[in-house]
Amino acid sequence: MIGPGRPLFVLFGSSIVQFSYSNQGWGAILADIYARKADIVLRGYAGWNSRRALNVLHQVFPKDAVVQPSLVIVYFGGNDSIEPHPSGLGPHVPLPEYIENMKKIAVHLKGLSDKTRVIFLSAPPVNEEQIVQTLGFRGRTNEACRSYCEACLKLCEELDVKVVDLWTALQQRDDWKTACFTDGIHLSAEGSKLVIKEILKALREAEWKPSLYWRSLPTEFEEDSVYLPVSQDGKSTIKISKNE
Fold this sequence. Notes:
- The protein contains nine helices and five strands; from the N terminus they run βααβαβαβααβααα.
- It is an alpha/beta fold and 244 residues long.
- It has a five-stranded parallel β-sheet with strand order 2-1-3-4-5, with helices on both faces.
- Helix 4 links the parallel strand 3 (71-75) and strand 4 (117-121).
- The radius of gyration is 20 Å and the shape is globular.
């Protein structure tokens, strides 16, 4: 660990998380917004479902860690919702098991420390036609994503966990099918803008103490210095640390 200590945010999920630092993704945007305010750590695993996430949960988030996260943003559900394969292989997880897995994940994360906060991201919609055209497979439907999304929302209400309804948020755009994805599943830059908008809204509205909204957090080493760029009047310096 390096100092000074900042709040630690962990992004934990499947490909929507792993790819969130590329293509002007929402993870990269979040890291930029929280520069000098919080450390954003990526724990994304493309192709994973909630069952596999549960299997490594104690390794990724050990309860005896010296530093526990201030915030964990969790996304699983899209891969779980894929239709089961006759061979028994593949990422499908039945809806009742998905709910139970996510419940166990939430309970574990909330128990890491008194100040660890959790936000779940629900399954987003998909463009089924684009998936076939770009990836060449079927079995991932928007209707199934809706079912897993609704289950996630209901669970979060029961557990008092903040949740972002991505299935609804992305479809607020009339052109969501063509604008929000790179391949029908993974987010384009435009799709990521909608995701980060909803995450920031959740952080702003959360009644957490201390607040984790970026405007509420101090900027590291924000004090004035004679080594900052000199202003045009030649008598003062320009503070450039703030991300407005």
